[in-house]
Amino acid sequence: MKLATPVIAVMLLASCSGNEPLFTQLSSEQTHIDFENKIEENNNVNMINYQYLYNGGGVGIGDFNNDKKPDIYFTSSFGPNKLYLNKGNFEFEDVTSTSGVDGDKKWCRGVAVVDINNDGLDDIYVCASVWHDPELRRNLLYVNQGVDKQSGIPHFKEMAGAYGLDDTSSTHMAAFFDYDNDGDLDLYMVVNDLGQELPNTFRKVKDDGSAATTDKLFRNDWNNRFQRPVFTDVSKQAGISWEGYGLGINIIDINKDGWKDIYVSNDYLTGDLLYINNRNGTFTNASKQYFKHTSLNGMGNDAADINNDGLVDLVETDMAAEDNYRYKMMMNSVDYNWYVYTKYYDYPFQTVRNTLQLNRGPQLKEGDSIGAPVFSEIGLYSGIAYTDWSWSALFMDADQDGYKDLMVTNGLPKDVTDLDFITYRDQQPGTAVTDLMLKLPEAKMSNYIFHNNGDITFADKTKDWGWDFPTFSSGMAYADLDGDGDMDIVINNTNMPATILRNNISDDKKTPHNYLRIKFRGDTSNINGIGTVADIYYSGRHQTAELTPYRGYMSSMENVLHFGLGAATAIDSLVIAWPNGTRDVKKNLKVNQTMLISRSSKAVPFSYTTAGITRDTWVSNITAAAGVHYINQGDDFADFNIQRMLPHKFSASGPSLAAADITGDGLQDIIVGGNGQQPTSVLVQQPDHRFKTKPLTAPAPQGYDEGICIFDADGDGDMDLYITSGGYAYQMGAKAYQDRFYVNDGKGNFSIDTLAVPVNDASKSCVKAADFDMDGRIDLFIGGQVVPGNYPLAENGYLLHNNSANGKIRFEDVSSKAAQGLSQLGIINDALWTDIDNDNDPDLMVTGEWMGVVVFKNEQGQLKRQSTSLDKETGWWNSLVAADIDNDGDMDYIAGNFGLNGYFKTAANEPVNMYAKDFDNNNHLDFLISQWKATAPHGTKAEYPVPYRDEVAAEMPSVKKHFNTYGLYAKAEMKDVLKVFNASDAQKFTVAGFATIWIENKGNFNFEIHALPAEAQLSTVYGIVAGDFNADGNIDIALNGNEYSMAPVPFRNDAFYGLLLAGDGTGNFKSLPALQSGLYIPGNGKALLQLPVGNTLALVASQNEGPLLVFGNRQPVQAVPLQPGEVSALMQLQDGKKRKEEFYYGSGFLSQPSRFVYMNKSVNGVTIFSDKKTSRIVTGH
Length: 1181
Fold this sequence. Notes:
Elements: E1 23-26, H1 28-31, E2 59-62, E3 71-74, E4 82-88, E5 91-94, H2 96-99, E6 108-114, E7 123-128, E8 140-147, E9 154-158, E10 171-177, E11 186-191, E12 216-223, E13 228-233, H3 235-238, E14 246-252, E15 261-266, E16 273-277, E17 283-285, H4 287-290, E18 293-295, E19 301-304, E20 313-316, H5 324-330, H6 337-344, E21 349-351, E22 355-364, E23 370-377, H7 379-382, E24 390-396, E25 405-410, H8 419-427, H9 433-439, E26 445-446, E27 448-452, E28 458-460, E29 470-471, E30 473-479, E31 488-493, E32 499-503, E33 514-521, E34 533-538, E35 541-546, E36 550-551, E37 555-556, E38 561-566, E39 570-577, E40 582-590, E41 593-598, E42 604-605, E43 619-621, E44 657-660, E45 669-672, E46 681-685, E47 691-695, E48 704-711, E49 720-726, E50 740-744, E51 750-752, E52 764-770, E53 779-784, E54 798-802, E55 811-813, H10 815-818, E56 827-834, E57 843-851, E58 854-859, E59 862-866, E60 875-876, E61 879-883, E62 892-896, E63 912-917, E64 926-934, E65 941-945, H11 949-955, H12 959-962, H13 966-971, H14 974-980, E66 987-991, ...
Parallel strand pairs: 18-21, 33-41, 44-79
Antiparallel strand pairs: 1-32, 2-3, 3-4, 4-5, 6-7, 7-8, 8-9, 10-11, 11-12, 12-13, 14-15, 15-16, 16-17, 19-20, 20-22, 22-23, 24-25, 25-27, 26-29, 27-28, 30-31, 31-32, 33-38, 34-35, 34-39, 36-37, 39-40, 40-42, 43-75, 44-45, 45-46, 46-47, 48-49, 49-50, 50-51, 52-53, 53-54, 54-55, 56-57, 57-58, ...
């Protein structure tokens, strides 16, 4: 199975010509660049005492002598900074001493190149840090005094004090930008240093400006007396008040309102900052409103449009390793309390790995109002999550194919996170610092470069593209050093020479790699046009970029916008949005040139203001209009306290939803599942089509409601109710797991009938109903889930036959007689009654965790398991829905899975496995999950245990005897771990894939699977509704999902905001953005169902610990209620095709939609069939 990807001109380049890689590392002998950021430790200054010792230095690119060749400036920790003039042909000259820019013996971090006085000469702002003496932390501003006519060397004068920029706060990086839209460049300072406080201690966030590591904002104020700008600290009045340990900064107009916003990646527990410009001189930190989670140890960052959809995306580096050994040596178990404290102290959620934030466009609110953009974090899906101890991240189109590639620097001379070192230090408390330093291992490795595949995934090209050599790298910048049109790379290394990488793409004459480079000439207060936005349109494609040179980590790029164009031979149009609010358009431009563009006299004013309301969406949020104010209150029970290595919780799956007319008034009502904190609720639809909420009964259930089924059990014409009980919070066999059956008095009042159903104290999931033996009474399938406290042991599935008669409701467990295959089937999450083989009786599909999709054929009331290709499609399946996707008259299926953006990954011949046995012979079932990880960076893979050594030891202490160091365990493959536990006979479970799919019914129980589009794979899918939402005659798919209850290390899957997929009737689907679909479900989405609300066809979505949401379809429909016994229909479409639909009780995860036939303008008529093989015909509008 392959994911559908767009057809694009992508060159997965191994070499440019012959065996030459894309990049060539140039020696210092060739370049004459001998800079090396040397750091020598001693008793006072060392990695033991100061963990920011090796944070490294930056790179600044500027044309300091105005010869149209980019020059290079390096910052240094202990030694002098260096300035190298570009002499051409990759030869450089060290002019530091003559120019006077050596850093004045300060510990220098970031460098911001700027023309501070707009005289046409690049100046250098240097960030000083670390030392206790404030004078040694005073930032430097080297103002360019001009170029010596004889030597060609520029001379600089240090003038930070004169400009008001000699700050002593311990600055890590600075960025110049115009925050108040007055035309001149202001300055943001990233302040960071380690004090006495432990930075990963939970406490109240300091957001009042009192923290020593609060960043600063300086306003550019023109001083008539001095005839130059003088900068004023306006941090407090501007709202720059949140603490942080900032390491990276990017200036972007993230919400496209014409005002620059500020993104800062923060180290340690303090969350990242996203200061949204309020357009009145103030900012608001909206990081938690824009991002679901970020990196915990945020280091460098960058912003670019990675998929050319016109929206800016963001990447942030962290320190998780690709290979198993390094990963296990620096990472350890995290208690679930980390989640608890994160919520209690109102910190943002964070994870230890690189994160990639995909811009999903604006959110939609009640009343169709358009809100701020939101982001889905896709680092795991995209393949860039693990690059070890990383610093800089830069997007740049290395191969000039039209998509931004990604480069990452990494490395650390002394790794204080090494777990064996930490153990040694803790066991030897009196050891001298000098001796401890000898025990510290190094983390020397190659930097990473990833090719952008054009489909929001990246491929590691480190080896193929000439980056596979070990370094200790930090700051990085790109520039066209040799004037050939492509971007070369400069990297500041620690304790080794700087890296210069020549880009060889221009040498490839066989394949076109065209480009366009743009420089801007702004006005007299912003001469280089910083903040200008350019959009290019060519060959039906679009790219956008924003000019801000301060990117990555402590570095400044060449002040140019670079666009790779692939084979395109011309630019149709270039649209330039100038910082002053005017716009220029240039058409029919040649490629392969560097343009210098000044604002023309024809530039016209424009406004970024967009419509605040949209009326063009497929559905509209009508929650408040429908009178729905229900909010699920979860109790956040910690399942992990029972079994520490559970991959996720089982006690946070609700709330479930079911819809039917329970009051007999002809209006559809909703029942919402409860838990020990919240009663089962009934939302009764009133004559005005608003809902009134009341509890089902009092008191609240003791356990957790899972499946809900509303059906007429006794044939008296009203709807009765069955609720399964599940979860993980109670001991096996507890009363809380007993299901409940409620009898309806005909008016929507329910009373419990304890004799109606068999006693069953297993933990269960779904309940789905159909008349499987065709006797006119509705029977039940009950899905058993996991045995509490004994994961992965599974409960049975159950088949309950309806024996009701003479006014007494009775169900009998006939599993052993009519469905023997339901015993020990697996951890069942969902089931579906469906006529797979079109023989007019309901067959059964069942799926769940570590299961395939299991098929039972109904043979005259006997459910016989079939061997099908779906048995091998093992996954963590959550939901099943039937729909005739290809309009061929039989039912196809949609199966919701864990997704491809999670911690657990599979590939061909690389499944995720689980081994279960009483490993340590203590009469308790143990289990170990494994997956395939790299044996070395960029290397081959092997099967390794997922849990860390301490996690395993908490369940099986003997693991420390077998692997008495972290290093030994980190080297152990899964076969080694199983061997020491004598576990060759362990029960093995396998997941072959995690993709959400649709299953094509080929007839005779043959199936073909198809992955849904990439957007459907970005999180865990739960609720599914299939229907023709836009009245074009084709089945579309609505999805609800996310999984917030993962264990802390796998971390939560939260990239969904609901999703609507538009179908074309042939099995192809297109993902619709929220601004087009109108579907916006931002939380921990679970159930999803469809029902009529007045004249509107509505979708209802539940969210765990979140509000119930209602979305009304804008298409008019005729809702035809089904009569008892009617189970399917054949829709006669206007295009002549016929589509089959089914109407059993329950469809999708913990969901039961209303039983209606929905006829829109694409339908001419419907033939409705009953289980007695009778039919009726309904004509269209």
